[in-house]
Write the structure tokens for this entry.
Amino acid sequence: MNTVLELHELKKIYKGGNVALKGISLQIQQGDCFALLGPNGAGKSTTIGIICSLVNKTAGKVSILGYDLDSHSAKIKQHLGLVPQEFNANRFEQVEHILLTQAGYFGIPKRKAQANVDYYLEVLDLKDKRNVQAGALSGGMKRRLMIARAMIHDPDIIILDEPTAGVDVELRHSLWKLVKSINSNGKTIILTTHYLEEAERLCNKVAIIHNGKIAHQGSMRNLLESSANEKLLLTSINKIEQLPQANGYKIKKLNDHSLEVTIDANAGLNSLFKLLDQANIQITSISNASNKLEQLYMRITNQKQVQSS
Amino acid sequence: MITHYSNRVALFTLCRLEVRRFLRIWPQTILPSLISLVLYMLIFGTVIGSQIKTMGGIRYIEYVLPGLVLMPVVNNSYVNVASSFFGNKFQRSIEELLVSSASNWTILCGYVFGGVARGLLTGVLTLLVGLMFVPIKIFNWPLALITILLTSIIFALTGFINAVYANKFDDVSIIPTFVLSPMTYLGGVFYSTDILPEIWQKISHFNPILYQISTFRYSLIGASSMDGSTSFIMPSLLIMLGCIAVLTTISMHLLNTGKGLKS
């Protein structure tokens, strides 16, 4: 796998002394769907801003497809497509014009860009809106327009900065489908999100930024497998009288009909159900108490918080 | 691969966008200058002109026409770039350009082209309307067009610099209100600087608009109030070219460093 993006000791200090990045380094391989996670103010958007030439870095090196950002900015930009967090297209321009204009900025003349524009209007279900002013679109349509705009010059790397923030469930699922299909076509995706379920579903690699530093970096599978325990919510049809006890399980009664069970990594579910059966607890439903990645994320960021304080 | 062709396409795209923008709202961008000129012509031609009769030996209405044509050129070139660039900065659509592979030269030339196109169009239209009131034979067409062109480039660049520094819409109107208007009115649009007290005559010579208006006046009617000679024309053109060089250097520096655009 080729490295398509490499950050080395990237630092950013804003005017007024706010230190956003304290020297982050990471590598992204071709075809990765890379999740960049972190709490608000961690430095995710600053990192993306630097990669896309919207923020000036204070120190460090950004290399994309082997080109240094400082000396080959224009070449690099040809390979990047950005879907920003907030809508930033000209509200008074029509949808089709926005896409044709963006293609033009990348040096694609109108006659060549038209086919791409038609394709993305179709794929993103904006065909009927081609002559509508961008400002008149709904939130979901604006989001789709920004995705079409980022794809219009056929970039190798697509950066999505919280693409599903504030969108409804239906649109979120259709965007996930789209991101998966873009990724399966060999494009590299960099995704920042607050929805950890989204990162878990879509991404094969993950980096967690905390306080301007990389707190964790690696494959999503390894991260999820590193989880020491799993927390489940169980609902019983009958009233829970007494709690069973066993090694490997921490069982907590939430109310007369529900339990929270923390299962160690080496303990299985079969033994748990035997145990519950012996205690005459008839389980009718089972669910995760919280997303696994969310637990890991909280653990990593809390650890870093303690270390830094 | 970034080629000159890519940048040419990007430049053409930006120029087309900018021209389309001001043409789409022509009642706001083109028409007011023409209405103002008609009003000025009625007031200065009929009402005040009949009292003053001549200025520097030239019929008053003919004397004021060049300045009245150049004033909208100055304003429109400036306002077009300042409002368009700041508007894009304000709604963050400027990021479309900043993330693209278009060079900073392309960005600057595209915006300046928009300002110059509006300045030239307004200038030519106001001149044609003015000629209906003052049917004169243009003395030197090429010099007239060169003066309008250089003037509009200067003020388009000034508008660009102002827009880069502006943080709110009020900031965009500071320069036209407090700098451009006084400089234009004190640049000899309505009177000859020869009639000013000596000290004000000297101060007026530091006003670049005085040279633009005097050169333009000479190109239209073949006479100028400035020193009563034509020796100022070449220095005036050189001053204008010098201004363009300085303003271009400043603009490119702002774009290259991302001042006002990148955090």
Observations:
- Chain B has one domain: 4-257.
- The first helix of chain B runs from residue 4 to 24.
- Chain B touches chain A through 29 residues (CB under 8 Å).
